[in-house]
Write a structure and sequence with these properties.
Blueprint: H1 2-23, E1 24-28, E2 33-36, H2 38-49, H3 51-69, H4 75-93, H5 101-126, E3 129-137, E4 140-149, H6 151-171, H7 176-202, H8 210-231
Antiparallel strand pairs: 1-2, 1-3, 3-4
């Protein structure tokens, strides 16, 4: 019975991951890499749906996005890497440690500071300057334009991102810091997985892609953790 109930939920999250990955991309000429917000959907699926749904939606949804965008060489690796990412986050988030309310607050505030430093540093170092932005589905209503992203832009984005995490913790869910740390751990598996795949199997200079992948992890946290706090009333299937 639970399996029948999970099928439409899994299909929805899989489609959400795929569409969110292809609907918004930022191309940075300096490194020929792409930014997308697919991680946000992977993390949301894992936090709300648990390990199994997170693994399937993360792997299959992201793989479909690779196929749609024409990254055929990455599709097999994406299926495994993003699947592991979603599964690990779903597993970790379902088993938070028993800590006092004060300890949760301290972890959450420390995590919000870490998000600010990471967003500001990575953005200012690797994403400042002119970037090509694409909004919309590739086959329908896609808008392309060029925008300049300055250091102060990334300071602003970092401040907004850390405020989201802090407010989510202080106003609704004190365990948000643990969710941030769990997302960072799951994201590190994604970053390492793509690095090894590109470096060892494809022969690319994979080190250049690491900042982009870390950026996607941060974006995923910024969107998914507050979204989870708002949607946590939705009952998540038990493991």
């Amino acid at each position: 019975m639970r399996l029948v109930r999970d099928i439409p939920v899994t299909a929805f999250y899989t489609a959400l991951v795929s569409v969110s990955t292809v609907a918004f991309t930022i191309y940075v000429p300096a490194t020929r890499g792409y930014f997308n917000i697919g991680e946000a959907a992977v993390y949301t699926a894992a936090l709300l749906g648990g390990a199994r749904i997170g693994a399937f939606a993360g792997g299959v949804g992201s793989m479909l996005a690779d196929l749609i965008l024409g990254y055929y060489l990455f599709a097999p690796a994406t299926l495994v890497i993003k699947g592991m990412e979603g599964g690990i986050l779903g597993l970790l988030s379902s088993r938070p440690p028993a800590l006092s309310h004060k300890a949760w607050r301290a972890i959450s505030l420390a995590a919000s500071l870490g998000v600010f430093l990471m967003v500001t540093t990575i953005g200012a170092v690797f994403y400042s300057g002119f970037s090509e932005v694409s909004v919309g589905l590739p086959w329908f209503m896609s808008l392309n334009f060029t925008a300049e992203l300055s250091f102060f832009f990334w300071v602003l984005i970092g401040g907004v991102a850390s405020s989201f995490v802090a407010c989510t913790s202080l106003l609704s869910k004190p365990e948000s810091g643990y969710l941030v740390l769990s997302s960072l751990l799951a994201g590190s598996v994604m970053v390492a997985g793509y690095f090894l795949y590109e470096q060892l199997l494809l022969g690319y200079v994979a080190i250049a892609e690491i900042p982009f992948n870390i950026g996607q992890v941060i974006i995923g946290i910024i969107i998914a953790v507050p979204a989870y706090a708002s949607l946590k009333a939705i009952k998540r299937p038990k493991m």
